[in-house]
Structures are given as C-alpha cells and as structure tokens.
C-alpha cells in the first residue's frame, strides 16, 4: 500500500509584504468530504504500516490494563457532613460518584453513575460535579464530542430526578450560591473562549439567566469559584500576565461585586479567604517568583496589601493552604517541589522530608480549617502516586493510599531514577530526570525516550506511570528534559522560553539530547523524542533543526502551524495566547514565529521515523495542523523512514474517553517505538 498523497490547491497567505504558499490550507474545511477521505486514508495507511505490530499492540494493551485495579476508588474526603468518593467497578470504563453520611460505615448514596450516562456515546467526559450547600442537589456537566464544550444538568438527590434545567455551551463548571437556589456558570464564545459569567435560578428557563460579567478583552478568560471558607464567590478575569478579581458574599447573589484590584499591566494575583482577611499570592513589587500578602476583606485594594511571606529570589511560590493554627506553602527550589509548614502562633517552620533525587510533591485536598492533619500527594519516577496524612503538631506521616500496580511484577526497588544536568549553548544548566530498570545498562545501543513540553510556564515534574513500565521492562530509559518555557527553575525559566526567546525551548531540548549521547546513555540510532500539544511544537521544531539526532519522533496533537494559527482569531486560544507566542500581526513577532514554525520550515532532507496523532474534534490544536504537517513532510522528505498519521475521529485534545480506551493509543505509540528500534 502506498502512502497517501494529499491534493494541493494553491493558496497564498500574505501579511507584512511577505507571501507564504500553503497548498494544504484546504484541509481546514471540517465538513469537506475530501478532508474526511484524506484522514481516513492516512488512518488506513497507519494500520497497514503497523499491521506487523498488531499482536504487540494487543500484548502492550493487555499488559498495561492488567496493572490497573479494576474496582479502584479515590481516597474519601469529608465535606459538609458527607464523605465523598469516586470509584470504578470492574469491567466499566467510567467513574461512579457517591457519598456517605457522617461515617464511612453508613450506606452509600450514588450521586452519579457515569457509565449509565455514557451508554451509546462514542465519547463522553464529565466536566465537574458540585453539590448544593444544603446537600439536596447536584450540578454536573458533560461533553460528548471532545471539544470541551459542556452542558450543565441538575439532579434532585432526594427524588433522584434530573431537572428540566439544562445549560449548554459552558466550560462545565457550576458554583452554588449559599441560598441553594442559584448557580454561577461560565459561557464560551464562538472561538471557545470563556468570556461570560451568568447566574441561573433553579427551576427557571435558562434563557432568562442573568448576565453577571462579560469580558470584552479577547486576550482574557474568565472563571468563577468559591473560597475554601465558602463565604465568598469570586469572578476572575485573567490573561497570561494580568489578573482581576471581584467578589460577593456567597449568601447574597444580588450584592454588588467588589473588585480586589483592577487589572494592571503585568500584575498577577490570586486570592483565598480566612476569617477577616484575604490572602493573596502575587508578583507585585517585582516579585517575579511571587510572594504572599494579606489584606482586610473590607479594604482589599493593593495599597492595603501587607507582606506575609516575602519574595525570595531563588524560590518559586506555587501555592498555599490555610489552617487555624498552621500555614502551609508549596514552593519550588532548584527545580524540586517542597512543602513548608509554618506554625501561625510562633512562626516556627519546617519542611516535609523527601528523599528521591527527582519527584513531585503537592498539597492535597484539605477542606477543613480546624485540623492539625495535612493531606499531601507524592510520586516519583519509581514510586506510585500516593496520598499521605501529615500530623503538623506531632510531625508524623501516615500513608493513606498508594496507587496499586497489579500483576505481581512491579517492585519499586527494581528501578533507578536520577537527575543530571546538561549545559545549554548559552551557559545555562538544564535538568534531566531519568528512570530505567536496574538491569538496563547505559550504552550506545540503549533506547532512550526523551520527553519535553516547555510552554505556558507548565512544568513537567517527575511522576510515576504504570504504562511506562512496558517500555522500561523492555530496556528503555525514559527521560524528561526540564527545558525553558516551563517554571522548573523559577519564573525566569519560563520568561526565557516564550515570545522572542521561544527558541531557547528547542535548543535546550537539543542540548539535553546531545548531552545524553555524549554521556553514553544512548546514541542517535536509539534516541527518540516525544511531546504533545505545545510539546508537539517542540519536537516538530527540533526535527527541523537536528533531524539526525533522533531515530524516531512521536508528536501527539502537535501545535505545528504556528503562524497561520496565530493569525486566525476565530480559532480557540489564539487571542489569549499573544502573551505566550507574540502577536504575528506585528512584523517582529511574525518573522520570529515563521523562523521556527515546524510547518513553515520543512525542507527537502532526511527526517526521523515519525508517528503523528490527533483528534478530529480537538479544540485546542485543530486536526488540520498535524494533517497539513504530515502532507508537507510526505512531499518534501528525502528518506525512506516511516511517517504515519493517526486521527481519532471521535475524540478531542485529551484523546479517547474512558479509563482503558486511552491505553490503546499508548500501545500504538509504544509499538511504533519498539518496531523502529531494530
């Protein structure tokens, strides 16, 4: 079977007196039968090329599935008289939301069985489930396409009946007011930007819902949330570099909304409430790594903010939790997350002890103020995800739940993790986290999968994956390059990998790869790159710069047509991302983007073996970006390496729904890597 050859239709795109020819521009016509035909031809070709791995894919799928506990459940948490639980039943794909009154010995009340709701649907995702203050109603939301457009429904828990109220075209979030009669929700515009906050009264026609707030600046998104104290409801309006928050008492939906601090250029802040004060994490006063201030609820403006936890140059503040007698901080130093406990009365502080060379630690779900018990999460490349309870008074740690890895073949001590540092070309040091089986030896013949992301300040921390064991047990090393564009080494690490410094992200990944080769962890013949979404942009750019470094690339839902997408304001995310990539309507940014955009820089040369994936309903990265990229690569590449492109016709940016369906996608990726590593 020959590889598909996409038809070409001349299309000239011109701006700043610069012309680009895009013969595959027609692929953005979602309803065009020829587009569907092309995607299906690529799928058929993928199946053909990967046919000799069908048994391997099934083996990998069953292997990965066998490690999952089929009847697993979440750790219960207590809130407003009830214990809340999310559980799975053997043989079922979707969760069941339930609760128990006062004690865990009481009878279970099923709030929502998602398996019933998802019957007959190719794709189904629950956005959120929220309970009214009087515990009599739930609001829940669902998406049936994968485009992250949710419909909100309401259920009377006393009668079990679904109410007639139905709110479409939302983000899925619903926040209950204290009167149990009203909810606040977020509408999306045509480009899927969260742009309006509405108030709905239970039992009334949704067409009569009251518009509370309309965000007219297209670079901002809105959100609505309730404070941990349940006393205030907040509306936030945020861009990449600015925030604005307004609030009302949760028990008075008709009150006037009061602004904490009006939006100010480059001022970021977020708010939590305790007793008479607001606690605010902010970058005010050049606090690039953030600080915490407090201010009276009655005087929330910035001139009244008083430093509570000062800014530190080498420590990034990531979050906090308030208790009656303790203040807990989540912070990052030299790349590693730490949890710091401060005694409110004395100011004495200490850190939780973590021993792995690279790991993830985070503050968990803590719903109560009046407790000495802190829940926190921990995982590393060799240790499954766990939830612990820390007694802040006695300084004792208790394991509450550890992710079970079934099958009897996983023992943590059989795997080794380490963190090494590579020199970037501009003198900076890049951390690389690695994990491998203890029997795997570093050599030029050892396969290594290098993963990266590097955008939006999102940090890929070292965490456990039971599916990854299928590679490690077959002799692979797995590595994460903590490149610029994330916040691994603080906020400056992010700032140095965005806008007109974006290429640092790509160069860091390349320099990390070269370091792994020079240190004899692997060789170009056995080195593989993987990234998704903005990480797909990363591996796409790296393929253009240094294709000879890698034997294979897996690009998941890749953002590869940067210039054209960022010039199209009808596409979701575009206007809100000018502060991440730059605005190509300005020539300086246009020229810079064009110089690295993977689609615009494909050349007639050899490229690595490549697997590209997408979802037809993807709202974050439209399917046509990877489709066009595939077609252009096919046309220009001069090698005989594999190039396959797989579209899930029923999913979106997050891939298949259901807890096991997504394993089939991973099985395909792993089978591809194992196939080409000969």
UniProtKB/TrEMBL annotation:
Domain Peptidase S9A N-terminal: 4-403
GO molecular function: serine-type endopeptidase activity
Superkingdom of origin organism: Bacteria
Alphabetic keyword roster: Hydrolase, Periplasm, Protease, Serine protease, Signal
Function in brief: Cleaves peptide bonds on the C-terminal side of prolyl residues within peptides that are up to approximately 30 amino acids long. Has an absolute requirement for an X-Pro bond in the trans configuration immediately preceding the Pro-Y scissible bond.
UniProt-listed GO biological process terms: proteolysis
Protein name: Proline-specific endopeptidase
SUPFAM superfamilies tied to this protein: alpha/beta-Hydrolases, Peptidase/esterase 'gauge' domain
Gene3D superfamilies xref list: alpha/beta hydrolase, Prolyl oligopeptidase, N-terminal domain
Domain Peptidase S9 prolyl oligopeptidase catalytic: 463-675
Keyword Signal among record annotations: yes
Lineage of producing organism: Bacteria, Pseudomonadati, Bacteroidota, Flavobacteriia, Flavobacteriales
InterPro entries associated with the record: AB_hydrolase_fold, Pept_S9_AS, Pept_S9A_N, Peptidase_S9_cat, Peptidase_S9A, Serine_Peptidase_S9A
GO cellular component: periplasmic space
Keyword Disulfide bond in record: no
Compartments where located: Periplasm
Assigned protein family: Belongs to the peptidase S9A family.
